[in-house]
Please model this.
Amino acid sequence: MPRVRPIDHEDRLTLVDHLGELRTRIFIAISAFFAAFALCSWQNHLILEIVNDPLPSNLPEPITFGVTEPFTTTLTNSAYFAVLLALPVIIYQLYAFILPAFSPMERRVATPLILMAPVLFVLGVLFCYFVVLPPATDFLLSFNSDEFNTQVRARDYYSFVMLTMAAMGLGFQVPIAILAAVRLGITTPQKLRKNRRYAILAIAVLAAFLPTIDPITLLLEMLPMILLYEGSIVLASIFAPKDVPDAQIAPAEGS
Model:
């Protein structure tokens, strides 16, 4: 495997060189995933206990159907957690591959934002696990409980948990998009404040597309993204480009 060397914006590489670097970085990312997958497979009982914890205590353990489902469900959960553990390495390899295409000014903007991405993703996953999932599962599983013999199928429940956590982690990327747009001069804090109502509507639509069907989960998913949007406006006001006129970054009247 060729050694990956730092590449500057001024360097001129051939197509073969680019493909060689891409192959190496893909190999590193895949190796990180399989290393994490081996660890998660070894600790699969602990992972299943963690995923089962948000379930109401009055329900039995999730059920499986068929001979192979316990095995395939366990491996699927190990793979989900392996992606989560390997994500910082994967994001860094992607960042290192595309960064040389940025100009020095764009690189100064992109570097801290890319480094924030895995941190925000993990925060979103943790918020979903500790804040969103317990009341959501309790509400959904207790709805009309007198009319149903409610049981939880392991495959469906684990898929719901993992998709919700992944979607919440991606939703926590809102500050990166906003700060990047401001630093690159695409928008200003003033415009962000003025269009706050449209942003909240867009957040509501985004939350509705997440794997949720109940109002409790919808509100719990919207709240942190709205707070992140407001916090991003504050940070954007601090880190806005210095050459932007003051009139453009002043707070909008009535906001």
